[in-house]
What does this fold into?
Amino acid sequence: MKIFCVGRNYIDHAKELGNDVPEEPVIFMKPKSALLQAHTPFYYPEFSNELHYEAEVVLRICKNGRYVQERQASKYYNAFSLGIDFTARDIQNELKKKGLPWEKAKAWDNSAVVANWIDITPDNAKKPVSFSLKQNDLVVQRGNTKDMIFSFSQVIAHISNYFSLNIGDMVFTGTPAGVGECMPGDKLEGFIEETSVFELEIK
It folds into this structure.
């Protein structure tokens, strides 16, 4: 199982971090060990002093494929969820200054949180997904997939040009503006539409 992630897929988020708006999807990966298992506590990483949350819609790959055409891409995922791509922002900034890869800031153990899956049905297949994140009961992020720079299908097609898609892979599709720092003791709660889909306390 692979975890693909898309960076800078919302214009406002790219701007808030001082990044250029990309002309093609920015792809990075997390290993299987990055996925926080159910009922496992999330601990603030010892190597970071600036941990950021990034809430985003996640897709579940249901079909093996390579070189997928954009018009066929919707056949390759069958469920979506809400997740958090945790980022050690201080580590990432230092690595970026040196022109180095930033897996240490993004791909460490338990850095990916995913709520329960919602099956894609004919009723919800073409509807944009509205989502939000609360930090200590205050809404800190709101997003809607209609505002993505690159659509689900564009992302899937692009990834498949470089990597094989396999059943069970996940795709984090990008975070909207509003990313910010979290501390031990903070409680994060994710919503799809108005429904709470996960609660997480930073230990």
